[in-house]
């Protein structure tokens, strides 16, 4: 069943939807994703190995969300900007993949072998809080002060231009910082 509420907005232009999404109507993002899923699939099918496709599609969807947040209608059309963001994301992912070492198959566990525990126990909540604090501390140690502040503002939902203004840096510097943050966090994850 479709959401009638969202169906009422499907005839709107990209620019109108983006204004609403950036104004807090995040449920409308599904319309933009639906409209540009063919672009994501085009680049993923054309450029990606099948084994990496799902991850790259997910990252490209995040790139589309980032395009929505940073779109400036005075510079280009949204379709051009979104396509460029998606393509760059896919290419960057491919560069990252080619630089990674492959994990031997025998070291990977099938998901069926993972044992799930009760997620609501007080002990689990306590240890999850401790793990979250340890993760936060590790991230804080890994990032420079500028990178940490960029990440904090980005996670708070600020646009690249707002982050640049608040930290008195360029938008390009914000973008570069977020790329370095992703790379550092990916290394931390491994």
General description of the model:
This protein is an all-alpha fold. The chain is 69% helix and 0% strand. It has nine helices and no strands. Helix 3 packs across helix 5. It is globular. The termini are far apart. The model has no long low-confidence stretch (mean pLDDT 79).
List the helices and strands and how they pair.
Elements: H1 4-7, H2 14-22, H3 29-47, H4 53-70, H5 78-99, H6 122-142, H7 145-155, H8 160-167, H9 171-189
Write down the secondary-structure element order: HHHHHHHHH
Radius of gyration: 19 Å
**SS class:** mainly alpha
Beta percentage is: under 5%
Count of discrete alpha- or pi-helical segments spanning 4 or more residues:
9
Summed over residues and divided by their number, the pLDDT gives a mean of 79
Main sheet record = none
Can you tell me the residue ranges where pLDDT is under 50 for at least 5 consecutive residues? none
**What's the total count of β strands?**
0
Shape: globular
Ends apart, CA distance between termini: 40 Å
- How much helical structure, as a percent, in the residues? 55-70%
């Amino acid at each position: 069943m479709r959401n009638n509420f969202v169906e009422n907005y499907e005839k709107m232009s990209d620019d109108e939807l983006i204004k609403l999404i950036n104004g807090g109507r995040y449920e409308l993002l599904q319309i933009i994703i639906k409209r540009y899923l063919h672009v994501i699939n085009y680049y993923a099918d054309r450029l990606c190995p099948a084994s990496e496709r799902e991850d790259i599609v997910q990252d490209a969807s995040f790139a589309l969300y980032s395009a929505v947040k940073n779109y400036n209608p005075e510079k280009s059309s949204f379709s051009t900007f979104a396509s460029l963001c998606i393509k760059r994301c896919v290419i960057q992912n491919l560069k990252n993949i080619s630089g990674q070492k492959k994990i031997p198959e025998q070291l990977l566990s099938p998901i069926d072998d993972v044992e799930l525990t009760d997620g609501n126990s007080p002990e689990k909540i306590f240890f999850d809080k401790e793990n979250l604090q340890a993760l936060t501390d590790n991230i804080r140690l890994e990032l420079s002060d500028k990178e940490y502040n960029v990440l904090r503002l980005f996670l708070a939902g600020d646009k690249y231009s707002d982050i640049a203004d608040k930290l008195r840096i360029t938008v390009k510097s914000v973008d570069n910082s977020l790329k370095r943050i992703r790379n550092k966090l990916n290394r931390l994850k491994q």
